[in-house]
Write a structure and sequence with these properties.
heterodimer; A: alpha+beta; Aldehyde Oxidoreductase, domain 4; five-stranded mixed beta sheet; 21 helices; 28 strands; B: alpha+beta; 2 domains; 5 helices; 35% helix
Chain lengths: 763, 162
Amino acid sequence: MNYIVSKPELKAVGTRPVRPDGVDKVTGRATFGADMVLPGMLWGKVKRSPHAHARIVSIDTSKAEKLPGVKSVITAADLPEIASEEAFVGEGPMNFRDLSRNCIARDKVLYEGHAIAAVAATSQAIADQALELIDVQYDVLPHVIDVEEAMEPDAPILHDDLFTANVEPTPTKPSNIAKRVYFAKGDIEAGFREAEVVVEGRYTTKPVHQGYLEPHACIVTVAADGQAQVYSSSQGHFMVRAYCAKLLGWDIANIRAVPLEIGGGFGGKTLIYLEPLALTMSKRAGRPVKMMMTREEVFRGTGPTSGAIVEVKIGAKRDGRIVAAKEILKYQAGAFPGSPVQPGCMCGFAMYDLPNVEVTGYDVVSNRPKVAAYRAPGAPISSYAVESALDDLARKLRMDPIALREKNGVRDGSKTHYGPTHQNIGFLQTLAAAKNSDHWKAPLKPGQGRGIACGFWFNIGGESSGAVHINEDGTAAVVSGSPDIGGSRASMALMAAEVLGIQVEKVRPIVGDTASIGFTHVTGGSRVTFATGMAVTQASERVVEQLKARAAQIWEIPPEAVDWRDGAAYPAGSNAGAFEPLSLGEIALRAAKTGGPISSEVSLNAQGAGPGFGVHICDVEVDSETGGVKIVRYTAVQDVGKAIHPSYVEGQIQGGAAQGIGWALNEEYIYNNKGQMENPGFLDYRCPVASDLPLIETIIVEVPNPRHPFGARGVGEVPIIPPMAAVGNAICDAIGIRMTDLPMAPPKVRAALDTQALPKAAE
Amino acid sequence: MSKHHISTTINGEPVEFLCEPQETLLDVLRNTLNLTGSKEGCASGDCGACSVICDGRLVCSCLMLGVEAEGHSIVTVEGIANGDELHPVQRKFLEHAALQCGFCTPGLIVASKALLDENLNPTEEEARYWLAGNLCRCTGYDKIIRAVMDAAAEMREEARAA
């Protein structure tokens, strides 16, 4: 059923109830990854490489094993060697061999922080001591950190068996370039010949970490018969189960993965690090094993997203019509192939209807931690370059930057350069809302600058399961397989309450473990409200059909003669007979006598996720003495299809914008000349704090997605895409300098101001 | 290494525990006393997820040793509500949807309470600087600031009525 058309007056969807897991979270009762204990548990810890690139000559664990209290010491030799096999995790490619070697190094260490051995002991202190007793002999190799240096023919090679894919002729020499991506539309040379105005730029970005506040943690227990339980915080416990089974060679049926509360993920918890090590040690020791990373381990050993170099060139007619657009993207993948360069190649120009486009991307390995998905993987980097260049173009044409985008913006029927044709999109509506916003119309104070930038993300659907069980008193339990990372339990409860016609407070949503609910893909790709929401909605609809049938049975009339509204069964018309309505509670009470429990579970593979568009407006002040940039006003406009719980939609938008502002102004991985990260803590890796930011205004645009029962689109990823260019464009507006190197930290802005001042000083 | 015997007050109740001299108060709270509401996000005093109030002063429990709790009075997130009656800050966090993953929330609840214990009429800027030691990666702080300002307004109103 499609409620966009048939049910314009929604009662639950679109309201803002207190989230069902809220009280536990404000009182400290919620159980996150590191909060659980099991009787007799051991503490597991990981030994990590101090070198960026080295051959492992030998690992001697004998001293560690002899230390009293140590129950298990493992290296890669204790896990099966995994053959190359592609898996898909929802937000990017994944190869099981690489994943296995990322969890624990085999033959070579490929980055500082690469896991090399693990111990389980009766206390944390003994585990720490045991790590010190493991003797590893390394043959240190030359390393490479920078993406363009890694692409050089004489660069240190990370993988002898890695040959660049998708180039002609097929290479015979191994390379750090894992893959070339290429998209073309029209005739790019002819396009630039036609152009009357051309802008170009070269943009660099640094790797940034997802920065979830909760370090990775798990607690596992394996029985002598091989039955294993994994309790961990992840973006997908079915993913945890599948990956552990694959990496250990166990049957999936022997692993039950239980989701604990997850303290942030943003894509970074769509893969595993600790679980296979903990399971191996638990099996050996016959006791539960708990493992948690330190913050330093999170920075050194888990995925940031790529740093990159992006070159962009755009040609237009004097009226602002873009006739040619070219982009070259070089993305760091970290130690194993799999940067998000492909979506980067797709997203930068996806918002514009362009006749002639050429985009080339390179996926490049170097001696850094393997990248993991981070909110709209690949898109923010590409859009930083494209949206900055468009701002330059608007300045050159003396054209309003929103008008330039309206002139070239995609609408229904626009064909993208990577193939698909846009349908049911709301980009122009989002631009219009930005143009009509108070913020856009407000005057700037002297010295301030204003910038706008846009963002596009595909959003995905995929496999999800949802179940609805009617309780004996007419309340309901909703079970889904999607870990709740930002309030999705509230959304599931609202959609179920809407269909059932009862108050949302009467619906208790939970996240079921892998043995309690059907397979569900990771919480990623902005898919949960769309895909899992669809499963929960359909399960609720099937329950309503059962409720109608039960009422029909009680009334002894055909089920088709029963209507369901406001949580009760009504005779469909006077022909059906004159009966008092039967409430859900009354039907539930009689369930045993009318056929038994009333419940339904739906598993589906949701198609038709509607893409999302965002437009951000940013005002800044630049301190000419320090080079510090202060965001004084920020507004994020986004088409969300339908806001199921508007507060959490706003929250996603505000959170994404804040992460993007951090990416723009402060955050970066800093390396020394040995390839070691120098800022693996929150003091030196500077995430935005409350005093860095203003209130973030949100404007929700609702262009319904016809493929979702309530019209919802994914929300969470789009808002991290525009901020870097929005901030950069605002800085350019304030001081007349185009900043092309992220982060736009005070020293860089100050240096740019000094350079700008030079000619004046000479006069 | 012998353990130290510590007598302290936690959430208004007398508590005794044994701890190693190098154990932090956060370790003791989480691993010995099973008060896991205080979170470890960094163990270096940079994220505030482990915030507790010690004798009325906001501190990171990861930067305080367990033995230093001797003779002091500690309030953790578990002690902010009065039974099943939530503190206004907790209620306003829920009403304003000022949490997403909820991992930073205990620390922010404790830090916000400490702010309002000291200053019931903070400006937005004062609230932002007070809470600058508490990282939140999900919300962008917008709804947190709104919740704290709203809680302050409600508590001022209550104080006037009292």
